[in-house]
Amino acid sequence: MFCNRCGTTVQPEYNLCPKCGALLSRTAGTMVVQNQGRLERHLRTLGTLWIIVGVLFLIPAAILLAVGGAAHFVIHGEPLARFFGPIVLSVLGAGFFILAAGGICIGWGLMQRQAWARIAAIILGILALFHPPIGTALGIYTLWVLLSDDAGGQYERLARAA
User: Fold this and answer.
1) What pLDDT was estimated at residue 161?
2) For the CA atoms of the chain, what is the radius of gyration?
3) pTM for the whole thing?
4) How far apart (Å, rounded) are the C-alpha atoms in residues 57 and 154?
5) Which of 14, 87, 99, 127 is the most buried (most CB within 10 A)?
6) Do 38 and 145 meet the contact criterion of CB atoms below 8 Å apart?
7) pLDDT value, residue 153
8) By the 8 A CB rule, do 100 and 58 touch?
9) HSE-up of residue 87 (Cα within 13 Å, Cβ side)
């Protein structure tokens, strides 16, 4: 018999996995972990939050890109402002669009348990710490979920199973 959480061979009389300490129950010749780990419980929520933040970043991205496209019609007089104004607004809009796409991709990757998503989410979680208040909260939650004890090993097992 095997533990569903870590895959360790377990004796039939064991109630706990000797390697990971998971509480086991007997079903049809296999040992099933009765409770989910913290990572499994929070991964879907974390992915959903990253998707929501990504969608919210699409709003300023669209506004900045639209204003950047129309800014040369509105700005009169100063030729330097007329030239650089639309460029600056378009670059800011493109930056927000890239952040939005990144958040949506990270959320999708976490929900699908993609192998690359954990490291990318940790990096974006660290960067999100500097964007109070929502970004800071999301960054703290991301790091709390993905950097817990043995989260790397658990995530690799979940990614392989998916």
Assistant:
1) 77
2) 23
3) 0.72
4) 30
5) 99
6) yes
7) 85
8) yes
9) 5
Length of the chain: 162
6, 22 Cβ separation under 8 angstroms: yes
* Ranges of each domain in the chain: 1-35, 38-161
The whole-number pLDDT of residue 11 equals 80
Rounded Cα distance, 22 and 1, in Å: 14
Query: Tokens at residue 135, please?
Result: 């970004």
Residues of the chain with pLDDT under 50: 28-34
* Separation of alpha carbons 49 and 126, rounded Å: 15
